[in-house]
């Protein structure tokens, strides 16, 4: 099998030992090191001869122990702006392309995680799959234009745009169609896509948003407050990566509501306005969007808390923290208790809707109102661990088919494999340009419920989602 690709930067040799060719550690930008640390993404340098692309590149600096890095066979470095490509063949075919932006609160994760191995998806769908590394944490999200200049903001999003530009220009060398690119993202990856859409980015042709906490795009004030925290925590005048990560660990990340201190911010440049405001007030790029959440997103974050934590007062306090002055906390709790038995379930469901489901629904509703094709879903497939339910991250093994990489999220039995096949086929239909199910067009509109039974529902939990209508910048 041909495992050589000729890009405008030089020739790459990938790993062609199986029925899918893999190009690992492909540089899409110059290393953001030295004077480029706080600078916008710069073009990758060209090379002479054949460059080997058979090993993953270093992962971005993040809070992970050396022992864990060694156990996983990983290295970590600021020189991390690489991507990985899985393709049935590096030929002249024009296959649909799926570019995936990982989650992790824009502070954790990497495109070479076993969970995100694109082999099964590329093989099943005859598509090209791309995963991306980008700057994370303080190195990618610090809002300090007075320190590093106006172009030092939202470096993570700048990296992601550069990666998408590279894919648009180069993917034809890998058997992909540069005119049929779908960008998909989960969690903070989905938030980034919402920000890109709000900024008018036209580097992709379809978009998939999975479990995005879209209300967590930060204001300038919130981002400035994080920078101020960092300033008090940083001890070294000329910090190295270890110094930066040590200071980063001291920044309060919040819990309920989630603070998202490393998520994108409204900087007036890369992100001129909150995505929920943009979606409501003016058209974004007129592309199809598939978006949704899992039924029990927040359960995985509540799992470490003991049962004794979930008292009546605790649940009411959580409702008040979420609702602010816009609602009576007792009304919020009563609405969620109507169809839930345990206080733990009530507490988790409120955050799931506030942080994930309601802002996603509002974002896609506005996009549909401008005449765009929108497909909304809720993943209801439960974890083998009953306490987790259909939790955050459970969509990942189902989409990529790598069930064994995270057995506690979706299971590994025959039923889980069938669920994975269903999810893959629906996402692939969308990636190929089709309609995977009935379009969503209004509040309470068509939502695909993905579980042991897959069906389209209407008015799905409309009463609960309506509670948060005026809680976000789009309605504030």
TrEMBL record:
<dbReference type="InterPro" id="IPR029058">
    <property type="entry name" value="AB_hydrolase_fold"/>
</dbReference>
<feature type="domain" description="Carboxylesterase type B">
    <location>
        <begin position="3"/>
        <end position="438"/>
    </location>
</feature>
<dbReference type="InterPro" id="IPR019826">
    <property type="entry name" value="Carboxylesterase_B_AS"/>
</dbReference>
<keyword id="KW-0378">Hydrolase</keyword>
<dbReference type="InterPro" id="IPR019819">
    <property type="entry name" value="Carboxylesterase_B_CS"/>
</dbReference>
<protein>
    <recommendedName>
        <fullName>Carboxylic ester hydrolase</fullName>
        <ecNumber>3.1.1.-</ecNumber>
    </recommendedName>
</protein>
<dbReference type="GO" id="GO:0016787">
    <property type="term" value="F:hydrolase activity"/>
</dbReference>
<dbReference type="InterPro" id="IPR050309">
    <property type="entry name" value="Type-B_Carboxylest/Lipase"/>
</dbReference>
<dbReference type="InterPro" id="IPR002018">
    <property type="entry name" value="CarbesteraseB"/>
</dbReference>
<comment type="similarity">
    <text>Belongs to the type-B carboxylesterase/lipase family.</text>
</comment>
<dbReference type="Pfam" id="PF00135">
    <property type="entry name" value="COesterase"/>
</dbReference>
């Amino acid at each position: 099998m041909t495992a050589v690709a000729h890009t405008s930067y030089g020739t790459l040799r990938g790993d062609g030992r199986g029925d899918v060719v893999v190009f690992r550690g492909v540089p899409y930008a110059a290393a953001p090191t030295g004077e480029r640390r706080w600078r916008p993404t710069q073009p990758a340098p060209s090379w002479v001869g054949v460059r080997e692309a058979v090993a993953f590149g270093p992962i971005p600096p993040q809070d992970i122990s050396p022992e864990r890095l060694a156990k996983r066979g990983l290295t970590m470095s600021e020189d991390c702006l690489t991507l990985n490509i899985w393709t049935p063949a590096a030929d002249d075919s024009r296959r649909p392309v799926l570019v995936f932006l990982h989650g992790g609160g824009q502070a954790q994760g990497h495109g070479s995680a076993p969970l995100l191995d694109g082999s099964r998806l590329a093989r099943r769908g005859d598509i090209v799959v791309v995963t991306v590394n980008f700057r994370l944490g303080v190195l990618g999200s610090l809002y300090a234009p007075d320190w590093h200049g106006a172009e030092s903001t939202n470096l993570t999003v700048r990296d992601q745009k550069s990666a998408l530009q590279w894919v648009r220009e180069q993917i034809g060398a890998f058997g992909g169609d540069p005119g049929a690119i779908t960008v998909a993202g989960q969690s903070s990856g989905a938030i980034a896509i919402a920000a890109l859409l709000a900024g008018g980015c036209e580097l992709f042709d379809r978009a998939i948003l999975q479990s995005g906490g879209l209300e967590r795009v930060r204001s300038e004030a919130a981002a400035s407050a994080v920078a101020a925290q960092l300033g008090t925590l940083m001890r070294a005048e000329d910090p190295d990566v270890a110094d930066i990560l040590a200071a980063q660990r001291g920044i309060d990340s919040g819990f309920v509501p989630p603070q998202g201190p490393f998520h994108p911010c409204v900087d007036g440049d890369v992100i001129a306005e909150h995505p929920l405001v943009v979606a409501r007030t003016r058209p974004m790029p007129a592309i199809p969007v598939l978006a949704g959440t899992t039924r029990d997103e927040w359960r995985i974050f509540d799992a470490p808390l003991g049962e004794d934590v979930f008292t009546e007062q605790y649940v009411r306090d959580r409702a008040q923290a979420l609702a602010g002055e816009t609602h009576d906390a007792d009304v919020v709790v009563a609405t969620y208790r109507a169809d839930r038995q345990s206080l733990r379930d009530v507490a988790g469901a409120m955050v799931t809707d506030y942080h994930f489901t309601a802002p996603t629904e509002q974002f896609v509703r506005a996009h549909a109102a401008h005449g765009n094709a929108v497909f909304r879903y809720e993943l209801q497939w439960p974890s083998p661990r009953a306490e987790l339910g259909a939790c955050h991250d459970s969509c990942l093994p189902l989409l990529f088919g790598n069930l064994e990489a995270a057995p506690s999220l979706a299971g590994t039995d025959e039923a889980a494999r069938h669920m994975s096949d269903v999810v893959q086929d629906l996402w692939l239909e969308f990636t190929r340009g089709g309609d995977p199910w009935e379009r969503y067009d209004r509040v309470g509109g068509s939502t695909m419920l993905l579980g042991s039974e897959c069906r389209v529902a209407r008015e799905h939990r409309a009463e609960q989602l309506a509670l948060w209508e005026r809680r976000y910048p789009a309605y504030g």
